[in-house]
Amino acid sequence: MASSEVEVIQYLVDTRRLWPAATKTSDLETEASRPLSLLTQDERTRVLKYYFVADAKMALASHLLKHWVVSKYCGVPWWETKLSADTNGKPVFRDSAGRQPVVFNVSHQAGLVALVAVHGYDAANAGDSSKVGIGVDIVCVNERQQRDHRMIRTDGWPKFVDMHADVFGRSEAAYLKTGLVALPAYAALQTEEERRDYKLRAFYTLWCLREAYVKMTGEALLAEWLGDLIFRSFEPPRPGVAFAQSKDDDPKQIIRKHDVIFKGGKVDDANICIRSLGPDYMTCTAVRTPERKGDALGWELGPFEFLTVDEIVAHGESTSA
């Protein structure tokens, strides 16, 4: 039986301006010593192995978020938030009875780290949430803008799509190449640059939708069935203005209804929400409860909130005393 106390948790951490004096990854050992001290030795080692400091910052925030969500929502002291891997290699937290009171997923791109979690699902089993599938993705449409535009100008849009077609569904590449032009939003565009930007936004929309969905299933992006997953007639959410998400956002910045096909059948058990974050980012959350599909379909996937590393560290240190 599902709990009426289910919490859907969505947070973002912006690492782009953190620790400005850290110009190389090894500098984090002094500049970010407090947050690093809240990681296990293995986690610290993995963070400090990154060549680019920007990647190391995102990895650090990702590890912190996972411990934070377990500690805060399960009432567990920081050093008791021991994470292990499930059969697909995803990190999970199990309590002393083997239950998963909170399930979570993280994603990072272009300096931002996103966390989605569900807490307290199965009231009949002490809030065990292990039967919830959950996935998140975040994309930045302009992170590689100069490269993407150059490739499109040089080789053309169809070739750009074909370069990535092996990770899309069987008809999705064709839709990107020829179907977008039929959308009213595309028809209203005036310049070739606007049309290129719209196509790229649609491309990254599809990427974001697929990654969140695949992560929700618990399988890797190299799953054999990737070609059998198809998002039909999708369009990108309208770019936002403010670098934030709120319940008052323009409805056209948020897309909740999707035509998803898997192995020829319509997917009717996944709650998927993709929404803009400012003009350049998009987040996508995907959740499902396979044994009672109506449960997840009824959850509101609202806006992400920003959380600071200082807030995470303060919580970690206060529960470590």
TrEMBL record:
<dbReference type="InterPro" id="IPR050559">
    <property type="entry name" value="P-Pant_transferase_sf"/>
</dbReference>
<dbReference type="GO" id="GO:0000287">
    <property type="term" value="F:magnesium ion binding"/>
</dbReference>
<dbReference type="Pfam" id="PF01648">
    <property type="entry name" value="ACPS"/>
</dbReference>
<dbReference type="InterPro" id="IPR055066">
    <property type="entry name" value="AASDHPPT_N"/>
</dbReference>
<dbReference type="InterPro" id="IPR037143">
    <property type="entry name" value="4-PPantetheinyl_Trfase_dom_sf"/>
</dbReference>
<keyword id="KW-0808">Transferase</keyword>
<dbReference type="GO" id="GO:0005829">
    <property type="term" value="C:cytosol"/>
</dbReference>
<dbReference type="GO" id="GO:0008897">
    <property type="term" value="F:holo-[acyl-carrier-protein] synthase activity"/>
</dbReference>
<feature type="domain" description="4'-phosphopantetheinyl transferase N-terminal">
    <location>
        <begin position="33"/>
        <end position="118"/>
    </location>
</feature>
<feature type="domain" description="4'-phosphopantetheinyl transferase">
    <location>
        <begin position="133"/>
        <end position="249"/>
    </location>
</feature>
<protein>
    <recommendedName>
        <fullName>holo-[acyl-carrier-protein] synthase</fullName>
        <ecNumber>2.7.8.7</ecNumber>
    </recommendedName>
</protein>
<dbReference type="Pfam" id="PF22624">
    <property type="entry name" value="AASDHPPT_N"/>
</dbReference>
<dbReference type="InterPro" id="IPR008278">
    <property type="entry name" value="4-PPantetheinyl_Trfase_dom"/>
</dbReference>
<dbReference type="GO" id="GO:0019878">
    <property type="term" value="P:lysine biosynthetic process via aminoadipic acid"/>
</dbReference>
